[in-house]
Amino acid sequence: MASGKRKIENGADAMSSPLKQARADSSAAAELKTADELSAPLVDGAGGDSITCLHEVSYPENYEMPEKAEPLLNKKPAKEYPFTLDPFQREAIKCLEAGESVLVSAHTSAGKTVVAEYAIAMSLRDKQRVVYTSPIKALSNQKFREMTEEFSDVGLMTGDVTIAPNASCLVMTTEILRSMQYRGSEVMREVAWIIFDEVHYMRDRERGVVWEESIVMAPKNARFVFLSATVPNAREFSEWVAKVHKQPCHIVYTDYRPTPLQHYVFPMGGDGLYLVVDEKSTFREDSFQKAVNAVSETPNKETGKWQKGPTRGKETAGPSDIFKIVKMIMQRQYDPVIVFSFSKRDCEVQAMQMEKLDLNNDDEKKLVDQIFWSAMDCLSEDDKKLPQVSKLLPWLKQGIGVHHSGLLPILKEVIEILFQEGLVKCLFATETFSIGLNMPAKTVVFTGVRKFDGDKFRWLSGGEYIQMSGRAGRRGLDDRGICILMLDEKLEPPVAKAMVKGSADPLNSAFHLSYNMLINQMRSEESDPEALLRQSFFQFQADRALPKLEKRLKELEEERNSLVIEGEEELKSYFALIEQWREMKSSIRDIAFAPRYALPFLQPGRIVRVLSDEDNDDEELSIGTTIKGYWGVIVNFEKVATATKDFVEEEDGRSAPEPKYMVDVLINSVTKDENSRRKTARPVAMDSPGEPVVTAVPLSQLESLSAVRIYIPKDLRPIEAREKCKKTVLEVLRRFPDGIQLLDPEDDMQVDSKAYKKVTRRLEAVEKMIADHPVASSPSITSRLKILQKKNKLTLSIRAARTEVRAASTLVFKDELKSRRRVLRKLGYATVDGVVEMKGRVACEISSADEIVLTELIFGGNFKELSSEQLVAVLSCFVWQEKSKNAPKLREDLSGPYTQLRDVARRVGKAQLDSKMSIDVELYVTSFRPDIMEVAYAWASGAKFSEIMKMTDTFEGSLIRAFKRLEEVLQQLIVASRSIGATELETKFEDAVVKIKRDIVFAASLYL
Length: 1008
Prior knowledge:
InterPro entries: Beta-barrel_MTR4, DEAD/DEAH_box_helicase_dom, Helicase_ATP-bd, Helicase_C-like, MTR4-like_stalk, P-loop_NTPase, RNA-DNA_Helicase, SKI2-like. This protein has five domains: about 110-230, 3-Layer(aba) Sandwich (Rossmann fold), CATH 3.40.50; about 260-295 and about 315-340 and about 430-505, Rossmann fold (3-Layer(aba) Sandwich); about 545-565 and about 780-810; about 570-770, Beta Barrel (Elongation Factor Tu (Ef-tu), domain 3), CATH 2.40.30.300; about 815-1000, CATH 1.10.3380.30.
């Protein structure tokens, strides 16, 4: 892949055409041209900071550059702007006018929309068709409204709404684009330009694959405009597009922020802000350290140990902190402010704490009331009385808003409109508010630095922080944007730096296979699943990694081959004996430290040796050496509850559950892992520099107990008390230069288990074999053993590297593709020759729910006997993913159909398992959640929305989203039934749509 690259700065001469660049060598091995080779940097004549952007081009292999580019100056601009364009906007527009694809990678609010608007204006000028795609329906609606005001010939297709489908410019979700591609829609034959907004969404775990499919399957004569937040691997993405579509793809990349940001830290429980990153992007280490030190430390009053979690949720810290910050922001006129939380409930709790703040005057209150009720006019009288509607209005009048996915869509939109009009001064929002919607504020506040990502709580990534903090600072209104990070736990400078000064997250593929994709590919004449896999960004990234992996493998092999050991075979047998000896020592320790033997000796003050959990490569490998450990003093021990039970064998042969114990030990330590949630200890030798702290270790981590006990004070919280204990231990170690006397397991601890005696006898035999071994007396034995150990480690690394190379050299997902094809054959969706059967024709129409289980239910006749209401209830199990705490018990006429659904799901799961798919059948079955079956049944039966809300503890918005997705699934089932001539089913599905598509659930968007 050949590329050209140059740096453009704010200056008139930067307008030279990208196609006039030095002709880059188009062979695959061509290197990037440097910025100097391509154009001299130009400086902003105004004397301020220069606004720079980087312009690169990726060419496909063997690409022949056109001899002469058509001069762009002769063309009348498709659209003119009342302001001076930034260099990145000008460069991108020139690429468009040259008829070549471009990826614009720039910060939030930098002005990427200008490029999209120009592409549309240019297409309309040249009588071409253009498609604009966005990741979410709400954003599509908003963009449709904006574009309709700007251009006349605009249509909208989101699945929920279709307006003017024959328009020259079509706004749609990426899912709609993909389904049009599979259906071979006429639009796809006519489209000249496709704009992918927020293309970094491609890394989304669930939906990212839709972007990849759409890009790969796009018409070969189409050109692209990709709009993205800053991504460090933009070049890799453009090279992939150039390769797949055999056309040049430009990257116009800018790190420029129209409004610079200042980042502050507010320590919870504190009362001041600390500037940690200034507007010139300088990280202030000293200021950050002061902020961290101000975070209240709450050691356990018994032991002096650090708390395991943050102080969040403690009554002392919560309400006052957020109230203090918002009040301070208002007093300093830093509003409007967006306060980001990572939970819907937190947003509402925090908004409630603003009771005493009134941010709007009387005229603004009247205006809020007027806008609010004119928006609610489309609702029925009952819906206007919903608790969420009545709860939000008083907040909105105060100038306080809430924005999260649990809100009624109409309320979300009215809050967005009020925020844009400056009538909401403080908005409590979840992360989704930072995606797509162009609604900047002057200030952004983060109420926490951790988020739950579906698996675990983790630090915010640099990319997530950049995305949300990018909302701070309004272009042309603010001279700087302000970000405030509320800190409620210890955070090391490198972690903070990675967050507030980190780079954006790379754009990595989230490609995965689905049956719908596979059947659609098999069904389409021009497509084939292997070709799609081969052209995916996932495969492209894997192929790129291969040379590096091969190089690493070669280096490892060369390093191993360079290690020559005299008498290697004899040494290997000696090494194996030592390993055996160490394992036996470990087994003896495990038996001796079983609770029944060890607990009587865990008195406070006993000197104990704690095993290190570090790598022990530097340890001498010879008889008599044990695993690395550190001396400490026992303070206390306690029994702990565990998720799993280990069983130990009793003397009579029976198994009994083994309880778990944690021992509090005072050890000398240095601060551990900078990513650690709390201040934990890495043990070091007693005579090393460090601070004595009390840390909890599992009983199994004790290596030996000494016969010596020392006096320890009752209160170990003061550092002086702990230092005194440390000095006493050092004095004991000094008095016993040959080693402290240890408790003997048999004589002192009364260990009399058969297993202990058996291992001890074997240990003695192994020790004799080691002593008699021919290499035992060799003077260089220690150094030779170390080389052998290094060689063994290298062998393991080589094995792992070979596996990686093998995986990278073959087609990714190849095995999964075979397994999925097996499943389709087994269940009758396709023949051995890959011909799609009737079942397959149904499954390929279903993309919003589990296509295989739904198809099995259709062909199994499970829907025939059900009423429309029961049908809606059963289908709700396919679209509901949230956990509900108190889901009502299922009535009889719903529990039967639900049991049938589970049976079908279990059969499908087993078919996948038999076809060598990696699947947990029971987990798969329970993924069909019955939590809202009763609610869905009541709604389809004509109940009011206020009535069904009393049946569940879930958020209104979550329920509406589920019903909308349910309608989407029903529409797909209507098309699927029609495709096989099942008119009775088609009528039933249509009737179900009529019953659920009403009132507030399907209220029209305010943007339309």
